[in-house]
Amino acid sequence: LVNNADALLKLSKRVLGSTLVNGVVKRTFFRHFCAGESQEDIRPRMAALYEAGIGGILDYAAEDDVDAAAGPASRAEPHDTVVARTYDYDTEAACDRHTSIFLRSIAAAADGRGQGFAAIKLTALGNPKLLERVSAGLVAIRNLFSQFDLNHDNVVSHEEFESVRNLTLLISADSQQARMNQLFRYLDKDDTGVVDFLSWSRRIRLQDIPQIIKHCKAPGPLSFTALSEEELRLLNNLMGRLYQLAEAAAAAGVRLMVDAEHSYFQPAIDHAAMELQRTFNKHTPTIFNTYQAVVLDSHDRIMLDMERARQEGFLFGAKLVRGAYLYLERGRAKEKGYPSPVHGSIEATHANYDQIVEEALGSVAADGAEIMIASHNQASVERAVALMHERGLDHREAGVYFGQLLGMADPLTFVLGASGYRAYKYVPFGPVDEVIPYLVRRAQENSTVLGGVQKEKSMVSAELRRRIFRLGRT
Ligand SMILES: Cc1cc2nc3c(=O)[nH]c(=O)nc-3n(C[C@H](O)[C@H](O)[C@H](O)COP(=O)(O)OP(=O)(O)OC[C@H]3O[C@@H](n4cnc5c(N)ncnc54)[C@H](O)[C@@H]3O)c2cc1C
């Protein structure tokens, strides 16, 4: 039932009508996993959390995906078929509406007690089709680096740059040759004679691709991912919305968490979050990006981003999750015939999560980074707590926060909060119709819910027994 919840809900709506189905969802899943339909609705749940020493993170849970038929531009393999798309005005207007909702969440977070947090989703702020196209462009820039790095030593030397350039680009006139030499010097900002990936990915911008492909001998992946002027304009709009939110968060002293989404949007999300961190995390880690341990390249990416923060002199902020899109990622990869971007077993995801947490705690201790351990996994939380003690990170003061979702793992959150750790609940809200993808994911993840509830019941029974026996002895 749960695995097919999405299809069943769509069918039920066709047969029974949206009003009836939404009514049932509202009284069941919605009531358990969401706090209400608007910021006003959720006040009582937020107040109850504060009373228990737990912060609330407002999370407008409406989300969007590209049309399934369009297929993803995967992180691993940009699809040559991802060509320019048309964008509708309605989506832009919806993005502006969502920006206002996020601004209100930031204001509400500033009014709460303790360090305020608000969460945002990029698919609510920009057309998912655009995010997919931007992601494909960023993957193409990354692949271009591998193409130039002939001896795979993770840097591009001047000689490698020249030889690949002569093979792939139509450069004949002396003036063009001089421009290319100038480009290498621009990429090699420290004048070391080699360009590393950090510099390459920072300095070649999406806006540069149309210029580069003008010189290509033949069209290739890069040409297919070049953004049109209209797309660059929409990207500017999206970045404008993000800057508006980041400025509001910085002014209110609120941390802004950028949620992680499907892998075929994630390069665009990472790119935007990094740009915000560069601007807004100079003195305070205002912007947190999210890393999903279930995704194969998540460890490499977080290591690269922590290094980027160190080299460029800003404070790193990260939410660490295992990742909510396992079934969707596998299903899509199979359907479209590209390699699955997620780990093949839960053990591999657990091991990667533990390693990421350990590395990130190192950065909290050494560089002043801040992280949120966002997990319901008791072993992960206990391990993180032990590592904090080992590294001398004070549980009330250090930039380590713990987060669980509303309606899940309450015993963990409440024990952390009562013990003085910086404990938070993600508090999703939004119109029933728009939060259904979120609810379906929660239900699927918690087909373990039944396992999770069972575990919580036995924890509560154990605690009751402990108290009763203690009373019996006194
Ligand atoms: C505060 C908070 C914020 C969150 N924000 C985001 C977000 O921005 N983006 C996002 O994607 N998710 C987010 N999540 C959800 C999160 O990614 C997980 O889906 C959820 O927390 C379950 O993971 P866990 O560590 O709590 O539990 P566990 O039960 O330890 O792990 C379950 C997870 O393990 C992985 N897994 C399960 N089976 C397999 C398998 N067979 N092979 C490989 N891996 C497997 C999956 O990722 C699954 O979700 C958030 C969660 C919290 C608590």
From TrEMBL:
For the EF-hand domain, which residue ranges apply? 136-171, 175-210
Q: Which reaction does it catalyse?
A: L-proline + a quinone = (S)-1-pyrroline-5-carboxylate + a quinol + H(+)
Q: Which UniProt keywords apply?
A: Calcium, FAD, Flavoprotein, Oxidoreductase, Proline metabolism
S-adenosyl-L-methionine among keywords: no
Cofactor entry: FAD
Q: Which GO terms describe its cellular component?
A: mitochondrion
EC number per UniProt:
1.5.5.2
Q: Does the keyword Calcium apply?
A: yes
**GO BP annotations, alphabetical order:** L-proline catabolic process to L-glutamate
Q: Which family does it belong to?
A: Belongs to the proline oxidase family.
What does the record give as the function of this protein?
Answer: Converts proline to delta-1-pyrroline-5-carboxylate.
Question: Could you tell me what this protein is called?
Answer: Proline dehydrogenase
